[in-house]
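Lab notebook, page 48
Experiment: co-folding of the full assembly
Goal: obtain a model of how the components sit together before planning crosslinking
Operator: M.T.
Materials (sequences as entered):
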Amino acid sequence: MVTSAPLWSVLIVPVLLTAFAIMAVLGDALLAARAAGRPLLTAAAAPAAGAARLLIGQRRRTPAPDALLWRAGLWTVPAAGILAALVIPFGTVTASRMSVGVVWFNAMEVLTWAGLWLAGWGANSALSLIAGYRFVAQGLAYELPLMFALISVAAGAQSLDVADIAAAQSHLWFAVWMPAAFAAYLAGVYAFSFLGPFGAPAGHDVAGGVLAEVSGVDRLAIEAGRWLLLAAGAGMAVPLFLGGAAGPVLPAWAWSAVKTLAVLAGLTWARGRLPALRADRYAEFAWVVVLPLSVAQALVPALVDLTR
Amino acid sequence: MSIQLFLLLAAALFAIGLYGALSQQSIVMIMMGLELMLNGVIVAAGAFWHYVAPAAPSGQLVVVVAVVAMAVEMATGFAVATAIFRARDITMSDSATDLKR
Amino acid sequence: MLTAVFWFLALLAAASGFMVFRVNSMARVTIALLVSFLAVGGLLIVLGLAYLGAVVILMMTMEMVIMLVFMIAYMTNPGGLTQMSMYHNKRASLSIAVGTFALLAAGILAVPWPRRAGQPPASPAFQLGQALMGPQMLTMVTLGFVLLATMVGAVVLATSRGRYDRFGDDLRRRSPDDPLRGGVGQ
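Observation: model returned without errors.
Model output:
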């Protein structure tokens, strides 16, 4: 039974989300160091050192930037992650028990569309602009399958409330009988945090893309924002697909943490294994194959509800 | 926070959109004016639902239809702008007569 | 508290709507319009329409980003680096707009609005869904067909290459002759 926590809990959400994001960053750094044969201890300290350096670093300026839109775009990315995490239940409490939590999550992750395009535009730099457009292209590909995945779980639970969706999985997890939706959702998480196979907007072939001209605390904001979005996506996967905080022995909050860490570990591990794709390679596949599959997947819980 | 205030906001958005739609030369800017007018319609429909008839779904339906109308107008408007741009390399509404055959 | 939120969102919506036609940079114009829509989405949530408010925020963000792509592509001053004045009939349209607003405001303030008939349901989203699937199914079907027709019509209008450009004069080519070759997944 998920209850809405008092208003000040809204301040705890960024802290908790940052904790998960830091664990993901550390895991990623350790995996990369082990694969490259570098010493692990220095690799574990590198993200913190990099963050400290960015915090005190001076901002580098480009000629004639659109500073208002640039900063707005860069800071929208972590803000979107934190706002999306407001509806995720942790254990038996949630910061905001909205009756339309799934739609709110979707709306907040769509803010990254605007954020990344503005981050690419505002710098007045060609490669940065190209990367911003790359994100819009990948957005067109991933967004509809992700929306249909969210519709599938909402139809399976007959409610848009995240707590109801978690409670409806007492017999069988949605990840088991809606695997296409789960796969589309995980791909969407990679895509809206532009990590892993969908990391082209920040790719090496565009000199860092949207990260190319950013420096100082703005750079920390957008780089942290990617991992905050990944953590929010992993956290949302738990009530949507993995049964929420239900489990035998441990208390509810422990199960939430364990399941979130499991998804986050899986996403971080797979991130180092998958190549980065450009949108023109998968756009047609996404629209011609993945989207009809997602629509067909949304039919499954509808038929189950009708025959129940 | 009464129905009059919501409707005044809706009228203001509608009037601003009308000003834009009438005064702008470029097709995409005219579309922005149309979007603002539909924005006003959305606010008005929501206010009517809340203050006059919350037990009936009609107010929400008008909002849904207005949102769909926005999407349709944007899609068609940009398709027409693309066609004109291919023909004339510029999108001025005065050149819309090019589409007449 | 709710009144303060209403005034903030209402003034934000009107002000950013007005800025759409005052600012030079096309990116800023579109973002001003997006801010106006987000404010309206917030107002819908204030009115109790949580689902429609979230949907407006969701759809308008996506639509405005796509509009940004087209604005930057088609407008002559996308960066706003030069002054430009792309108006015609400025005075006439201003008078028409102000006159319309005066007329509407007079009507709004003069009409005796009816009293509230009934209470809002526990779930307005369910009320909307039930209506669309039941008594208002005709609306649903019409919207579906209109959207389909729009999709087809927009692609037909916008594309400059037809079947004969893609498949040859006798439509005999097996794979279409597109700038981006290859089929699904390439």
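Interpretation: Chain A has one domain: 3-307.
Next step: discuss with group before ordering constructs.
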